[in-house]
Every structure is written in structure tokens, then in C-alpha cells.
Amino acid sequence: MIPIPGSWGSSGSSWSGGFPGGGGFSGGGGSFGGAGASGSFLFGRTDGLDNAAAPREAGDVMISDVDKRRIAGAIRAAEEKTAGEIFCVIAHACGNYRLVPIAWAALVALAVPLPLIYLTARPAGIIYLLQLGAFIVVALVLSLPMIRFLIVPKRRMWGRAHAEAMHQFLAQGIHLTEHRTGVLIFASVAERYAEIVADSGINAKVQPEVWSKAVAAMISAIKDGRPGDGFVAAVELCGEQLARHFPPGALNPDELPNKVVEI
């Protein structure tokens, strides 16, 4: 797959949108011989997925059951008109990034002794204790989920989310469709990242930039706090492209489950 980069937010990016806490879209390269589009959001706050980056208890959901049924219905309707297959995945987070707060805390702790040594007459033991205390306090504060995901380098989060999208493409068996006509619509809340990945059979007939419209529609709805609408819009637009290039055959088997998976 060859994702197409883009971005959304309030900083003059090409698209706009975001999960709670911020957002902007960015993508990288792929490796399965297909095509797609990807993105991540940097700015803006929405009401639909508050505290999405925080650890979740069993039963917590990002998309309601009603929206899940709507998405499943949109997938069935789209696949009736095409031999292609559409699958949706939404992830709570693609990594915990717990080493990032430790790294920042270490940098702060290394800086603490310098002013104390040159500007005070405190003994070395006291300076050491202050340095240790600074490390512990900063590490604990930065480890809070609401802060941790803000200090992780954006490229690292986007890279992790892209890798998870590629993993889900394989893990969900999207690459196993008979004519390699599977499409994955993927979003990760903590990383504020979304991606559409199409298999190699589609790449032969559909240019990667075609998927940008579906990504943009998904981003716009997510920014407004309507993730269910975003997935439905992306499914419908992907279905239109698949129907144009891959009409249904005589049998048109349903090779993938018609649903959105939360991970």
C-alpha cells in the first residue's frame, strides 16, 4: 500500500479535523503493492471521543452500537454494487509510549544540578536528592495519559499508527480476498490518525489520490464529533470507486465481515 500524506487542523493544512485533544493528517509509505490515503490531526477538539487517549475499562466504546449498525449497513450496501470488500477498524491506541515521559524527565533531571551548583552553596547530597525528586515528579506528571500523548513526537505516533494499520490489514485477512480487492478504513484515537489502505488488485486500476476524498470526508465528520458519520461517509465513497472499477460478478461472495472492529 502507498498511503498519500495530508494533514488537518487550524494551521493551514490541506484538510481539517481531529479527535479530542487535537489533530492533523500525515502518512508514510507502505509495502503491500496497493494504494491508499492516510492522515493525522493536530488541532481542534471534539465532543464525540473525549478522553480517548486515556486507558479504558472493559465495555468502554468509541463508536456506539447504533453507529456500528449504520456502518455495517453502509458496508453491505456498498458491497452489493462491487466485487470489492471493505473493512473498518478503530483503535484506542497503537502504543503506550511510556518511555517518552522517562526520557523527558531524564533531560529535566540532568539540567537541575547546574544552577544549584553555580548559584547556591548546597551540599552535593542535597543537590542529588533534588535532582532525583525532579526526575520522579516530572516522570509521574508526564506519564498522565492526557499529557503523555501530547509530548510524544508526532512522527513517532503517526509511524506507530501506520504500522498498526498495516498489521490490521494482514491480521483481518483483507489481503486474502480472491482478486485482491480489499480496502481497510482505519483510525486510531490516541494517535489522532486515520488511513485508508487498498490492496494491490485495486492499485492496478485506481490511482492513490482517488482515496483522498474519502479521507477528507472522514476527517471532517470526526472533527465535528461524529466518528460514526465519518466511517459511513468513507465507506460510501470507497464503495463508489470500487463499484466503478470492480462491478459485482455472478456470485459476488461476501469475503469479509461487514463490521467495524474496535481494538
Explain what the structure shows:
The chain has 263 residues and is of the alpha/beta class. Helices cover 43% and strands 11% of the residues. It has 9 helices and 5 strands, in the order βαβαααααββαααβ. The protein has helices at 65-79, 99-111, 113-119, 124-142, 145-151, 154-171, 200-203, 212-223, 227-245, and strands at residues 35-40, 85-91, 182-188, 193-198, 260-262. A 5-stranded mixed sheet has the order 1-4-3-2-5, with helices on both faces. β3 and β4 (193-198) form a beta hairpin. α2 (99-111) packs antiparallel against α4 (124-142). The longest helix is centred in the middle third of the chain and has 19 residues, at 124-142. It is elongated and about 85 Å long. The two termini are 21 Å apart. 45% of the residues are buried. The model is unreliable at 1-35 and 38-59 (pLDDT under 50).
Summarize the structure.
By secondary structure, the protein is of the alpha/beta class. The protein is built from nine helices and five strands. A five-stranded mixed beta sheet has the order 1-4-3-2-5, with helices on both faces.
